[in-house]
Amino acid sequence: MCTIEKRGSLFILTLTGDGDEHRLNPTLIASVRSCLAQAGSEATRGAALVTVSQGKFFSNGFDLNWAQAAGSKSAATDRLLHMVDLFKPVVADLMALRMPTIAAVTGHAAAAGMMLAMSHDYVLMRGDRGVMYMSELDIGITLPDYFTALVRAKVADPAARRDVLLRAVRVRGEQAVAMGLVQSAHGGGEETVEAAVRLGEELGRRMWDGEVYAEIRKALYPELCGVLGLAANAAKTEEKDGEIGAKFIFLGIT
């Protein structure tokens, strides 16, 4: 369902299998969380994470086929809500991960798949094909509170938020850059991954303290982190080369 590979201080998380759609069912969600936990436990100063995917899709969102396979409408709804609950900690894991994170969107990213991409610090997208698309309006389901909080946190332009959520537009690479959904668009899938790896390596060379990075990230998005139940740590000190230096980790969620 997904794999994690360590290249020096760079972690590569790859979504695999499931007919290349990478639909977020309980199995894939658990696999993603396991990979993120492994990256977090093995990280050293200067680590960074790049998330990539195989095939036509980055992720096509929640596995509605798995939900509908429950039989009745009420059972299918229960399964959908179960996936919504299971996916929320994935967003929280990425927001609390002690390293910079980059999503290389080399295929379609729809609904929860788009939210998975936008949970990263940086989103790079291929420009030749593939779309980002919030499909909930078209298929007739409402949004979880943490989805809307994530969009408000990551998309500054109210018109862009409206078009994504209230027009259900399918956004391609260059348009996504213009709307502020992604940081850059690249010629194709290979170029997108290469650019994401370069960015990860560039950020890693700064040798930032991962704990400090994560706490500043949480402080940057207080509404989202409040919805996710993430709290910031108190200020702490550390000793370096015989000197005491303060880590001012107090700008977080109360």
Keywords:
19% strand; alpha/beta; 254 residues; globular; 2-enoyl-CoA Hydratase, Chain A, domain 1; ClpP/crotonase-like_dom_sf; three-stranded parallel β-sheet; single chain; 11 helices; six-stranded mixed β-sheet
Short description:
With 254 residues, the chain is α/β, with parallel strands linked by helices.
Secondary structure: elements and pairs:
Elements: E1 2-7, E2 10-15, H1 26-42, E3 48-53, E4 57-59, H2 64-68, H3 73-96, E5 101-105, E6 108-110, H4 112-118, E7 122-126, E8 132-133, H5 136-139, H6 145-154, H7 158-166, H8 173-179, E9 184-186, H9 189-204, H10 210-220, H11 222-228, E10 236-240, E11 243-247
Parallel strand pairs: 2-3, 3-5, 4-6, 5-7, 6-8, 7-9
Antiparallel strand pairs: 1-2, 10-11
Helix pairs in contact: 1-3, 6-11
Structural commentary:
This protein is an alpha/beta fold. The protein has 2 domains: 203 residues, 2-enoyl-CoA Hydratase, Chain A, domain 1 (Alpha-Beta Complex), CATH 3.90.226.10; 38 residues, no CATH class. Helices cover 46% and strands 19% of the residues. The protein is built from 11 helices and 11 strands. The strands form 3 sheets. The chain has a 6-stranded mixed β-sheet, sandwiched between helices. The chain has a 3-stranded parallel β-sheet with strand order 4-6-8. Strand 10 and strand 11 form a beta hairpin. The radius of gyration is 18 Å and the shape is globular. The relative contact order is 0.13. The C terminus is likely disordered. InterPro entries: ClpP/crotonase-like_dom_sf (IPR029045), Enoyl-CoA_hydra/iso (IPR001753).
